[in-house]
UniProtKB/TrEMBL annotation:
Amino-acid positions noted as binding substrate in the UniProt annotation, renumbered to this chain: H182, K186, E220, D239, K345, K350
Name the record gives this protein: Glucose-6-phosphate 1-dehydrogenase
Keywords on record: Carbohydrate metabolism, Glucose metabolism, NADP, Oxidoreductase
Known catalytic reactions: D-glucose 6-phosphate + NADP(+) = 6-phospho-D-glucono-1,5-lactone + NADPH + H(+)
Protein species of origin: Paenibacillus shirakamiensis
Length: 494
């Protein structure tokens, strides 16, 4: 469906996120007819920019990052006309009054009924004061709805997240706050729900009687790039673990909601987070969570620098660029089933993948065979390949009864004509529609932080107690030991 008439405010309009993701997402929505004609976008940032310069920025961003290319001409002009720029000192209320006037005239021009969506692509320290100034400047006085869309990181730990949430709640109600976790906008992450609840093949087996373990990998080949300043303070646990990783885990582990309504789904997800077995002592953290940092290494014939040599990183830094953990979900369905998770920078491949390893069949009938029976696997490929893959056992053709694992594969991203929407397209569209399903609710954020804080606290007692791995490898041996001590191993990613 088309979005309702809306003014989108992009705070941080000259920044990286706007350029790489937000302008391209708006353009794709427009090209696909998912954005109603009565929309307007006001780009807000500090630096002065003329309308022409701003529209030129947008054009460049689309040419570089969008799955549709813009062509100079009528269609482009029609799109670009919806964009205006406002240079604003976000701490100065005066500017917000001007912004209100600019907004009202756009609303009049397009017949927009006062619906305003504020996307803050800004440092989180600014969320509170911008919200307050929006209110003081009269930006929330219009008749329609008002929504706040914010990016992670949502706090640094539970305490700071709570503080931030309280600040936001002075101005916005929970149902007006859309916290982005862009992994929830990914096509295949959303598909987990359908795979599970739409298939008699899977859901009846989706429990501790049939599943031996679950492995979730979010690996990246990039290093910290230009984000050393932020990353060195955050680390992999906060950057990927608290949000994307735990969110994916909830999608795999949640109970079927009674309806596919946002609050029902989010209720089920938060129940998973509440069921995570907390690591009670530093020793438990040590035995179940591995952290590591990359050192210099080789990939593709090139030498990659170590993390400590990266720009804006403390040369004595002990920040983790990799972590892996064994997580237990203490509920009826999952009792006894380990979830192994891992994420890292400078790993050999870029992939997001979930492997569900089923319990093996009784092997008595095959005793005495040369080949052991391998367990069935269901592999959900999220990114960059999208699809699913099932590994089953079959007889090797031409042999009497030799068993051979074979793969049944569905590759969504290989299909011609399928051009999956980018996560941000889906999320911006949903926020304008008021559908909060794939945004994280406050209790999810808080519960996730409570779990993560225990790990971070234990680590901070011994900052130097960190493993290392050469850039371009799969992390330290300790990450494999986590599984091996339980009789499992990481399945190679594809
Ligand atoms: C972001 C992290 O949330 O996700 C980055 O801050 C990371 O460090 C990125 O690179 C990965 O996202 P994607 O969509 O490329 O897997």
């Amino acid at each position: 469906p088309k979005t309702p008439g809306t003014v989108f405010f992009l705070f941080g309009a000259t920044g990286d996120l706007a350029r790489r993701k937000l302008f391209p997402a708006l353009y794709s929505l427009y090209r696909e007819g998912k954005l109603s004609e009565d929309f307007a976008v006001i780009g807000v940032a500090r630096r002065p920019r003329t309308q022409d310069e701003f529209r030129d920025d947008i054009y460049q961003s689309i040419q570089e990052f969008c799955r549709y290319k813009a062509q100079e001409g009528e269609q482009w002009t029609a799109f670009a006309d919806h964009f205006e720029y406002k240079s604003l000192d976000i701490n100065n209320v005066e500017g917000y009054h001007e912004l209100r006037e600019q907004t009202e005239s756009l609303e009049e021009r397009y017949g927009i009924p006062g619906n305003r969506l504020f996307y803050l692509a800004l440092a989180p320290e600014l969320f509170g004061s911008v919200s307050l100034n929006l209110q003081k400047g009269g930006m929330l006085d219009s008749k329609g709805w008002h929504r706040l869309v914010i990016e992670k990181p949502f706090g640094y730990n539970l305490e700071s997240a709570q503080k931030l949430n309280e600040e936001l709640n002075q101005v916005f109600k929970e149902e007006e706050i859309f916290r982005i976790d862009h992994y929830l906008g990914k096509e295949m992450v959303q598909n987990i729900e359908v795979l599970r609840f739409g298939n008699a093949l899977f859901e009846p087996l989706w429990n501790n009687k049939h599943i031996a373990n679950v492995q979730i990998t979010l690996s990246e080949t990039v290093g910290v790039e230009e984000r050393g300043g932020y990353y060195d303070h955050a680390g992999a646990l906060r950057d990927m673990g608290q949000n994307h990783m735990l969110q994916m885990l909830t999608m795999i582990a949640m109970e079927p909601p009674s309806r596919l309504l946002p609050e029902d789904i989010r209720d089920e997800k938060v129940k998973v987070l509440r069921s995570l077995r907390p690591y009670a002592t530093s020793n438990e953290v040590k035995n179940n969570v591995v952290r590591a940092q990359y050192t210099q290494g080789q990939a593709g014939g090139k030498t990659l620098p170590g993390y400590r040599e990266e720009d804006k990183v403390d040369p004595a830094s002990n920040t983790e660029t990799f972590f892996s953990a064994k997580v237990m979900v203490d509920n009826f369905r999952w009792a006894g089933v380990p979830f192994y998770i891992r994420t890292g920078k400078r790993l050999p491949v870029k992939t997001t993948e979930v492997v569900v390893e089923f319990q093996n069949m009784p092997t008595n009938v095959y005793l005495g065979q040369r080949h052991t029976l391998e367990p069935n696997l269901l592999v959900i490929r999220v990114n960059p390949m999208e699809g699913i893959y099932i590994k089953i056992n079959a007889k090797k053709p031409g042999t009497e009864s030799q068993i051979e694992p074979l793969a049944m594969e569905f590759c969504q991203s290989c299909l011609i004509g399928i051009n999956s929407p980018e996560a941000y397209e889906r999320l911006i569209h949903d926020a304008a529609e008021g559908d909060s399903t794939y945004f994280t609710r406050w209790d999810e954020v808080a519960t996730a932080w409570a779990f993560i804080d225990k790990i971070a606290r234990a680590w901070s007692e011994n900052p130097g107690d960190i493993n290392h791995y050469p850039a371009g490898t799969w992390g330290p041996k300790e990450a494999s030991d986590l599984l091996e001590q339980d009789g499992f191993h990481w399945w190679p990613v594809n």
